[in-house]
Design brief:
mainly alpha; elongated
Amino acid sequence: MMDFFFGTTSGLLLIVAVYLFMFYSATTILMERHAHEISLIWYINSFFFLLFYGLEVIALKKNTPLAKLCGSSEVTCVALYDYLTNMGDEFRLVIVVVVLAIAPQLLSYGLSGISGTASSPKFVSQIGKFALWSLAKFMVTLGGISIAHPFAQLTLGQAPNAKDFVLGFAMTGIGFVYAGFEVLINEKLPKLLKAYLAKNTSVSALLMKAHKIATRNLPRGEIAPELQ
């Protein structure tokens, strides 16, 4: 499967088409109320592209690995590069943060709800926003770093691998998708959910009843008026 995508012209063109679709969809969503965020994403991408483009040109001219440019600080540079480009570690870190921040609140709500003293989970939307924007910034950073190498090769008259171009642009596109997804979850989804509950009063009533039971022994002032 991977050989088709990266080993054939048709596969590469398909990836480019998907990238353009993702980029267009995400930027369309962001342009409504988050034009400044689009500029910020491009700034991060451009910063790391230019930084690593310069380093890649120097490394290619010297015919030496990128980390060797750091001299005695090579180990530190390798660790920093891994931090900026290790997708697996980034995903695991974000997942751990989200789980540790939200899971205890949900478990606490369920357990304390037995005695009617449950407190609604707090900062859930903020945590989700942090997670998705962290991933978005990581991906556009990775995209900028990834695309620097083939551009450096072109600058020096070397033949770059088309796969490197595609991967670099794709990473950037995925970063925009994460940003657009955050807007959908935190801004669009609540409105859709509210509209759904307004139409499906039985579901809304069931959720309201369950919450009232879970908070039945809380002082009335600690419960939102619409839930009393």
